[in-house]
Amino acid sequence: MLKNAIGSFLDTLRSRSPFAGTLAGVTFSLLVLSTGVLSAKAQERRDATRPVSKISDKGRAREFDLLTAQPPNSIQVQVRYKKEYGYKYDSGVFAGSGPSSCDAFSISAHPDPSVRQEHLFGIHKTDKMRESSGFYVCDFLITDLPLNALIKVSVDLAERRSLPFETWKGGSEAQPSSGQQRTIIIVSGRTRERRAQDETVTLTATQPSATRIFEMVYAPAPLTPPTQPVPQPRRLPVTPR
Questions:
Q1: Could you give the CA distance from residue 220 to residue 183 in angstroms, rounded to a whole number?
Q2: The CATH number of the domain where 118 resides is what?
Q3: pLDDT tens-digit profile of 8-53?
Q4: Do 200 and 186 meet the contact criterion of CB atoms below 8 Å apart?
Q5: Spatial distance between the Cα atoms of 141 and 126, rounded to a whole number of angstroms
Q6: What separation in angstroms does the CA of 134 have from each of 7, 29, 80, 86?
Q7: Residue at 30 is within a domain
Q8: Which range of residues forms the domain containing residue 100?
Q9: Which residue from 111, 125, 126, 161 puts its CA 20 to 30 A from 212's CA?
Q10: Regarding predicted confidence, which is higher, 61 or 211?
């Protein structure tokens, strides 16, 4: 609107005096320029007062994953442990995923063999280990499971020779103390934690998905019974003939 009014005024001046028209043209250019600068500064002020999100693009992607509904015929398995225990690897498979211990855990599912399965089930994991309420959490998803079948879900350490005792990185309690080892317990759905690696789940048409939470803790190593010597058969003395 301002530009249209100034343009009409300049046309009137040019019709009366060429010099006045030239001078007015310069004035008009300066006015337009100053108007643009003021508009830019006003936009900057609006942007400055607008709240800036502190969530990164990766964080938004993670939030989207969490908000996405869990598919039917699936069991979400969460394996958590205290951040003081540190982490095993400096990074996951993909660059920028950050410290991870998810490959230290082995997830398995065993549906009732008497129930026919239409598809082979799959086990998927996220490359990034997340943090929640003082825990590191590894997320796994078991998909394409049958309904109305007893399914045994198992979580254990990926190997039993060194993983239970070795020193991890970046934690104040990165290694179990003497006489203890890393152990998996079941947390979800229990009034108290119990030491076990197996949990049974049955999916139905009304509840086609489930979540189970396991936790890695430091616990006393199971006692190994002492090896008993194998008794040797008694040999009778040989009498010479």
A1: 9
A2: 2.60.40
A3: 554 554 555 454 444 445 454 544 445 554 555 555 554 444 344 3
A4: no
A5: 9
A6: 67, 62, 10, 12
A7: yes
A8: 70-220
A9: 161
A10: 211
